[in-house]
Amino acid sequence: MSYAFLRGVILMGFGLLILGLVLSGGIVYYIAPIMMPFIYFGMVTFFILGAVQLFQDKEDDHPQPWPVYVLFLVPLTAGFILPERGLDSSVAENRGVQYGAAAHGPGLQAEESESDTPRADSYLDDPDGYMEALGGTEEEEADEHAPLDYEDEEWFEGYYEELFETYAGADEIAVDEDTFIDVLTLLDLYTDSFEGTEVEVYGFAFREPDFDENRLVAARFGMTCCVADAGVYGLIIDSEEAADFGDDTWFQARGTIRAGTYNGQEVAILEDAELEPIEQPDSPYVYPGYQ
Amino acid sequence: MVNQTRIRPDILGGAVLLFILIMFLFQDVLTFEAAPSAWINVNTIFLGIVIEAAPFLLIGVLLSSMIHLYVTPEQIARWMPGKGIKTLLPAALVGTILPLCECAIVPVVRRLIKKGVPFQAGMVFLVAAPILNPVVLASTFFAFRNQLEIVYVRFGLAFVLSLVIGLILYLVFKNKGPVIRTRPGEVHVHHHHHHEHGQGVAARLKEICSHAAEEFFMMGKYLLIGAFIAALFQTFLDRSVLLSIGSDEIASVAVMMGFAYILSLCSEADAFVASSFGNQFTPASISAFLLYGPMLDLKNTIMLFAFFRTKFVIVFMITVTAAVFAGVLLTFAVIS
């Protein structure tokens, strides 16, 4: 008795699930673009292992009772049947939204894609060679990063100073997904300098329990590897139209930056904003480590 | 005996094939839009963890299968000479060059111990490899660029603690017999592999694949259960409850360790989650989060209980917990 055929079918099913998500674009709800090389590797491996199992006729080495295989149908069924949708404001509420200050950590990772993507690729091309090679590259890597150790403070300030130069003096700033976290961090670091600047931003509506009816947040989930690590970033908005926008509706806001306080912290607030409903963008998340 | 209650594999396989094909071809029509949104969130996080962890689990079972089929206990003994506590330091050094995360490491360690690697060395791998690897170093560095002491503490302490944990486990279990469970049905099949050595690359690859496929199901079922529980917590746990205790020196360390355990993040991504806590938590508690999660979390606990003796897993968990807790508090008492 062998369950090889059943295993083959399920493995193929996982390959198909990933393929379907990649083709439909739904994969963006689960996985950050930076991890995609690993996901492709997983998909191909599922197909290969599945194909080998379909045509296998030997006895099982590790016999599993059949309910184990049924368990693997759960993620498959859920993946195919349940709607693909981004996380919503109930999760945002449980995770806590970051208004500026705390966001600057992840905002710094602009370089990460450069260092990680080739590594992921080399892993894919030749996992074993890659693993062997790591012994050697580790030292080089340490060297490569070492100079940064001494100047990381300056680097941090330099990065945002430079960015500040780019935006300072602008009468208006339109924030898109690539600049969402960077601009929010700038607004927080240099709130006073940006007072009076017109800002246009879009996100989904989120409310803290203590907000009054004219206030809401344009929020985005920022994802590093997968949805499990997604954090929430947002800009507080005061607008007379706020009440028209229920939680989780996507909207665009245009208003003027003022320095304000929330929970005893100084934050940038977008005031007198005009709000407009928009369609959910193709990519519901923003990616701090990927540009 | 058992065979009579089994469903015939070919019928089950055929039914599942049909089921999957229908779902794949008609997924747009079949979408269950009315599902409650909280459960869609659970599903999104659950699938996110599973899809992200799957490639790494596959790497783990492929590596494990290669070791299983083509590495002999004699070779292991040659690579890891020495006995008792002399194996700890080499194991920690090997752990630093194995780029395996916590999803991939359990099958590999289990296999190595079965092949004759001393269990204390295996456990040093298990706790060291998911932290001490280049990808994790890079992500931690980027997340904590402006707080480098956390990077140093994470990697320095991970090395030291892996040795301490290995030493304690060795002292407790050195004369207590095997730490690995032997599963019925597995013992008798392990002698037939080595005669197939000379059959060429294609046959070898096929054999690795078929063994890896079986092992994927053996390991994957625990990943599925762990990922589901983690998704429940991720969806319904209100993090502000944690933040209210964030500033207390000792309580915050304990809370962040518990949090790391429940979240079951990949060690490659946890640094970014930790940095999102920002200044609300102490550096000691952030370091504890970064050390404890990769060593022990919900999804690998379930795997550990399945493959190691219950008593051993319990002692292992207590040792890791105490070592991380004490190590972090001591370190920060000294450096601050």
DSSP strand tally of chain A: 8
- Look up the CATH topology of the largest domain in chain A: OB fold (Dihydrolipoamide Acetyltransferase, E2P)
Tally of separate domains of chain B: 1
User: Low-confidence runs of chain B (pLDDT<50, min 5 residues)?
Assistant: 185-196
* Succession of helices and strands of chain B: HHHHHHHHHHHHHHHH
Comma- or semicolon-separated keywords:
heterodimer; A: 291 residues; alpha/beta; OB fold (Dihydrolipoamide Acetyltransferase, E2P); 5-stranded mixed barrel; 46% helix; 20% strand; B: 336 residues; mainly alpha; 16 helices; 73% helix; 0% strand
Structure description:
By secondary structure, chain A is α/β, with parallel strands linked by helices. Chain A folds into two domains: 4-85, no CATH class; 162-286, OB fold (Dihydrolipoamide Acetyltransferase, E2P) (Beta Barrel), CATH 2.40.50. In chain A, 46% of the residues lie in helices and 20% in strands. A five-stranded mixed beta barrel of chain A has the order 3-4-5-7-6. In chain A, a hairpin with a 2-residue loop joins strand 6 and strand 7. The radius of gyration of chain A is 23 Å and the shape is elongated. With 336 residues, chain B is mainly alpha-helical. Chain B has one domain. In chain B, 73% of the residues lie in helices and 0% in strands. Chain B is built from 16 helices and no strands. The radius of gyration of chain B is 22 Å and the shape is globular. Classes of the chains: A alpha/beta (291), B mainly alpha (336). At the A-B interface, helix 1, helix 2, helix 3, helix 4 and helix 5 of A face helix 1, helix 3, helix 8, helix 10 and helix 11 of B.
Chart the SSEs and their pairings.
The complex is a heterodimer of chains A (291) and B (336).
Chain A: H1 4-24, H2 36-54, H3 66-71, H4 73-81, H5 89-95, E1 97-98, H6 104-107, H7 112-125, H8 127-167, E2 172-174, H9 180-189, H10 191-194, E3 198-206, E4 215-222, E5 231-238, E6 250-262, E7 265-277, E8 285-286
Parallel strand pairs in A: 1-5, 2-3, 4-8, 5-7
Antiparallel strand pairs in A: 3-4, 3-6, 4-5, 6-7
Helix pairs in contact in A: 1-2, 1-4, 7-8
Chain B: H1 9-25, H2 27-30, H3 37-70, H4 73-79, H5 88-97, H6 102-114, H7 119-128, H8 134-143, H9 148-173, H10 200-236, H11 239-243, H12 249-263, H13 270-276, H14 283-295, H15 298-307, H16 310-335
Helix pairs in contact in B: 3-6, 3-10, 5-7, 5-9, 6-7, 6-15, 7-9, 8-13, 9-14, 9-16, 10-15, 12-14, 12-16, 13-14, 14-16
Keywords (chain B): Cell membrane, Membrane, Transmembrane, Transmembrane helix
Protein name (chain B): Permease
Main location (chain B): membrane
